[in-house]
Each structure stands twice: as structure tokens, then as C-alpha cells.
Amino acid sequence: MNRYPGETRTLIAVDCIIFGFDGSDIKLLLIQRGLKPEKGKWSLMGGFLQPNEDLQQAADRILKKLTGLEGVYMEQMRAFGDPQRDPVERTLSVAYFALIDIHRYEKQLSADYHAEWFHVKSMPELIFDHKEMVEIAKKQLRYKASLHPILFELLPPRFTIPQLQMLYEGIYDTNFDNRNFSRKVLSTELLVKQKEKDKSGSKKGAYFYRLDKRKYKANFHAFLNFIPNPDKLLL
Q1: How far is CA 52 from CA 28, 56, 65, 75, 105, in A?
Q2: CATH 2.40.110.10 assigned to 151-233
Q3: pLDDT (tens digit, 0 to 9) for every residue of the chain, 235 residues total?
Q4: Looking at domain 11-136, what is its CATH homologous superfamily?
Q5: How is the chain split into domains, by residue range?
Q6: Of the residues 58, 111, 124, 225, which has the maximum number of CB atoms within 10 A of its CB?
Q7: Are 92 and 46 in contact (CB under 8 A)?
Q8: What's the pTM?
Q9: Cα-Cα end-to-end distance for the chain
Q10: In a 10 Å sphere around its CB, with 0-12 CB exposed, 13-18 middle and 19+ buried, how is residue 178 labelled?
Q11: Which of 127, 117, 20 is nearest to 80 (CA)?
């Protein structure tokens, strides 16, 4: 194989940042690292790009090998290239991120590398620059959630206003006033009230709603109106 003369080798790694929603909390999927250095410590799902694959193929392979998950839609976020980020060799990392419904994928999850979900507010110390990756991914997720209808992919066909509120509070790491949230969400006229109630949380229960997908596709930006100070939350 021909090589460029005088150039130094740099390894390329791929790291997968997988957020999940379990119906009440936003969580982060982590594994215990299986090689030195930092063996046994908590880490994102990562591995090295192989000669015969592109970056997306590497991300899919690494995620399946380390967690058992497959069929997860991931987006490329950005590259991390601090010369000192890996103490062994100069390694450039390309990060991917995803937001999934935990219950949809829980049967796929493998225990081989001790994959475990952690609440984003109480995650353990991570190796290398993985904490920085997570923080940037959270900002990217908030930005994307403000522009695209990705959050409703995490809800069942019928859901309650409290469920929707918990999802948005988890994404934006803030608390909404219950009455104002309900009033503003219903004012969008994008939700259709159902006759049945969810009484799992209280005797009074909360009415189920479903999304009017036709209206939503035409006017999903209406949901931005109930996010307080969205520009500040996206920082």
C-alpha cells in the first residue's frame, strides 16, 4: 500500500451517545470499558474504524457488539481531535448520537459489557473526554427537538399531558408549571382528547391524548410556543 511520506498515523475511533426515554426520565446508555487504559470504568460505546467500513457502518457495528442494539437511527454529531484525548495513541473520535424509546429496545440489550442506563443527572465519571461529548450531544438534542418532531417518536400512540411534560422537562432540564404547560399544549390544537383515562398514577387519572399527525406535519412549530426562553435553553 502506498503511503503519504512524512505523515504520522492517527487512529479514528467512533463513539455512540445513546439517550433513552423510559416514560418518565431521560437516560444515557453506558458500558464498562473492556480494555486498558481505564479498563472497567464507565464509557460511551466506542471502537476503531476498520479499513473496510465507513463511519456509519462502524457506528452500527460498535453499538451492536457492545450493547446488542441494532436498527437504531444515529446521527453524526462532530469530531473530537484534542491531541491528548487518548493517552495511548493519537486518536480522532467521530461521535454519533441517538434518542430512543428504552422499552422498545430493552429486549435487545446485551449484558456482555454490562450496558446500563443512567439518569443524565446522576451519571458516573466517564473516561477521556466522554463527558464533554455527552454535554455537546445534550445541546444538539435540545436544538433538534426544537425544530423537528422527534420527541413524539418516543411516546406511545396514546399518551397523557403529564407524560409529554416529563419528556420535555427531561430534554430541556427544566421544570414547567403544570397548568401553564397543559394550557399551552392544548392551545396548539394538535392533540385529540380521548375518552379513556390513565389511572395508574392516581384515582382521578389523566385523560389520554393522541397526536393529530396531519395537523402536526403542517404546523409542528406550534409546539415551540410553550418552551420558555427557548434560545436560553438551547445554550
Answers
A1: 30, 12, 17, 21, 28
A2: no
A3: 678 888 888 999 999 999 999 888 999 999 999 989 999 999 999 999 999 999 999 999 999 999 999 999 999 999 999 999 999 999 999 999 999 999 889 889 988 888 999 999 999 999 999 999 999 999 998 888 777 667 777 888 899 999 999 988 888 888 889 998 899 889 888 899 999 999 876 778 899 999 888 887 777 677 665 555 544 444 3
A4: Nucleoside Triphosphate Pyrophosphohydrolase (3.90.79.10)
A5: 11-136, 151-233
A6: 58
A7: no
A8: 0.85
A9: 46
A10: exposed
A11: 127
One-letter identity of residue 80: F
**Summary count for the chain: helices (H), strands (E):** 7, 10
Helix axes 130-147, 161-172, angle to 10 degrees: 130
The amino acid present at 106, given as its one-letter code, is E
CA dihedral 65→69→74→77, nearest 10 degrees, is -50
Inter-residue contact 182 to 160 (CB < 8 Å): no
